[in-house]
């Protein structure tokens, strides 16, 4: 059966670097029966972080940075259905055996209603779902995430004014067991620990059937040694 692989990484686990690899190597991957899925942003540019699709299935009450910055247009239910149907139809035109879709926002999902929405969406694609989940050391994860949020003037002043269940820096976000429990009901989960690899992108592309040597590499957006320094430029 054909596959849909969902890539999820919590903060600072190389998510953006992996998405940049998908962009840079899209042609080579398609030629080898693996298609990276992208969206179009407001400027009609390709975006390999599935920002809109992931927010579409995310509970509306959660105050993500994108929502607080006004980067997400909240859709009516019929508009969501139209968007989802159009996306599914476009994806179903692809003949490749493997599709790979990536979004950090997926790691915010916890609730049964979100699971039901995703399950219904995946059913439209008629593919076996597998998940690549990248986790990291809890202390480093908390530190880098708080540093990131404090640097955003449109997010930091507002976050702590919301109830815990609406905040993306509350304790529930760091509960790895709840992440695993959520995704295990949707497909087989392949778990990777960020600290176990010199380059986390390598085991991910290996899982897709490629080696780093055959792919066009991209500049990494951060280095391990200064990953959590508050003065660093923060990226996923």
From TrEMBL:
Gene3D superfamilies: P-loop containing nucleotide triphosphate hydrolases. InterPro entries: P-loop_NTPase. It comes from Cohaesibacter marisflavi. This is Sulfotransferase family protein.
């Amino acid at each position: 059966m054909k596959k849909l692989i969902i890539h999820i990484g919590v903060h600072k686990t190389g998510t953006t670097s992996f998405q940049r690899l998908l962009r840079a190597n899209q042609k080579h991957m398609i030629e080898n029966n693996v298609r990276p899925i992208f969206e179009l942003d407001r400027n009609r540019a390709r975006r390999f972080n599935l920002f809109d699709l992931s927010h579409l299935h995310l509970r509306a009450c959660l105050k993500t940075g994108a929502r607080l910055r006004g980067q997400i247009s909240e859709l009516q239910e019929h508009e969501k259905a139209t968007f989802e149907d159009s996306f599914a139809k476009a994806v179903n035109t692809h003949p490749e055996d493997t599709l790979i879709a990536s979004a950090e926002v997926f790691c915010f999902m916890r609730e049964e209603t979100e699971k039901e929405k995703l399950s219904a969406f995946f059913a439209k694609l008629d593919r076996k779902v597998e998940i690549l989940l990248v986790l990291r050391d809890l202390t480093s994860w908390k530190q880098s995430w708080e540093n990131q949020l404090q640097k955003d003037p449109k997010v930091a002043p507002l976050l702590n004014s919301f109830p815990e269940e609406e905040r993306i820096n509350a304790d529930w976000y760091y509960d790895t067991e709840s992440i695993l429990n959520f995704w295990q009901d949707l497909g087989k989960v392949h778990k990777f620990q960020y600290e176990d690899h010199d380059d986390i992108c390598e085991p991910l592309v290996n899982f897709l059937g490629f080696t780093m040597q055959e792919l066009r590499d991209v500049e990494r957006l951060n280095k391990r040694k200064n990953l959590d320094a508050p003065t660093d430029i923060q990226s996923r």
